[in-house]
């Protein structure tokens, strides 16, 4: 093997797991190559996930503000119209700047980008486009793809995955979203704001079912107030697309009489599955679990020298979880003590209001039999939220009844995704609710609601 084809480590996939792993490993002095089959770096997250969806969420928020909110602030903008082509072009510019940023970071850290689809031919050996590469260690960071729904054939035009839903060149009259998870609700919000009628069909009895129950109920109310209709406890059994649109066949989840629902565009967002096909895993003997994810123990697979991180292994399918794993594994391979605290990984739904959660829900604490106290504070009582005109929602902090240690927090409200970071740090430091309550928070800020919720744990909130 020449110097150009032999590495300390080859990581397969340049998503937030793979590219962050590559940077950290290079920082620690390892000779790193990253294989990516997509034309650009950054994986699902930067190309067709987190970043384009947030660009469209922001743009559509501005549109809705101009249409419905600015006049209340005394800002009259005259007639407002949508230039969807410009909005989409701006989203593409944001994506392009981000993926080029990763390319720059690869050059800066002297990471070799091998372009093409990788297959592991043996421990320590990877093949890309008919060429062989050697590495002491191999990391699988191949991410995930949208799950198909039987009977519903995706064409990325009328029946789309999230990738197609980010590219629509016309606002659909009626968008039906199959799956009430965060991806469906974020993209449903985008198109609802831009003028579509939106219906979410969900098999279970609630939207984002993993969410803390009380927060989830409020979230459903807010979504419904915004005009997003939901059909819960309903399953989609088929879809027929023609020039007039898509006709979906629905049935009650528990079985019963079928009905039809007509849509212009259908978004299938029922979850994501690990990308393990074509990687040669069966031939090399890498074990997968019942859901097709690579089985790992501290990122090690059952085969020596082969590791895995990110969406392709167990745990929440989130970019920051993949990044944390990338850093931890790079540090482990460089002889350090890499570690991820899975109890403190925030989850955010970037609708407006946003929903953010961390740690355990009330339902989980009850199931574990943990005695806990609840401190809650509504944004209606927060001066900054009132000044902004964004008072929907609350902050809820759950603390251990005996030790007062913060066990979880659930926020629905303006900028919840930013507010949750304060609680993540508190939880990393093993803080009590009193630690947060006794920390000086700037006034007037949304963060004061976090402090007030912490005060409310002991029944001593000041502003309510
Ligand atoms: C619409 C949408 C919105 C999202 N929004 C958020 C959000 O707001 N926040 C959040 O935290 N998460 C979000 N996610 C999830 C997030 O994108 C993923 O959790 C994250 O990208 C996982 O990172 P990863 O590195 O494991 O894999 P990926 O980002 O999927 O990257 C894997 C890469 O591996 C490449 N690859 C696969 N197989 C091979 C092979 N054999 N050879 C070479 N290359 C290969 C793929 O082309 C891909 O680029 C969103 C996802 C979607 C779809």
From TrEMBL:
Note the Gene3D superfamilies from the entry.
Answer: 3.30.390.30, FAD/NAD(P)-binding domain (3.50.50.60)
Organism domain of life: Bacteria
Cystine pairs: 45-50
Q: Which UniProt keywords apply?
A: Disulfide bond, FAD, Flavoprotein, NAD, Nucleotide-binding, Oxidoreductase, Redox-active center
- Listed binding positions for NAD(+) are 179-186, 202, 271
What InterPro entries does the entry give? Answer: Class-I_Pyr_Nuc-Dis_Oxidored (IPR050151), FAD/NAD-bd_sf (IPR036188), FAD/NAD-binding_dom (IPR023753), FAD/NAD-linked_Rdtase_dimer_sf (IPR016156), Lipoamide_DH (IPR006258), Pyr_nuc-diS_OxRdtase (IPR001100), Pyr_nucl-diS_OxRdtase_dimer (IPR004099), Pyr_OxRdtase_I_AS (IPR012999)
Domain spans labelled FAD/NAD(P)-binding = 7-326
Which cofactor does this sequence's record say it needs?
FAD
Asked if the keyword Protease belongs to this entry, the reply reads: no
User: Which residues constitute the catalytic centre?
Assistant: 443
Under catalytic activity, the entry for this protein gives: N(6)-[(R)-dihydrolipoyl]-L-lysyl-[protein] + NAD(+) = N(6)-[(R)-lipoyl]-L-lysyl-[protein] + NADH + H(+)
A single GO BP = 2-oxoglutarate metabolic process
An annotated GO cellular component: cytoplasm
What Pfam families does UniProt report for this protein, alphabetically? Pyr_redox_2 (PF07992), Pyr_redox_dim (PF02852)
Misc. remarks from the entry: The active site is a redox-active disulfide bond.
What is the name of this protein? Dihydrolipoyl dehydrogenase
The scientific name of the source species is Humitalea rosea
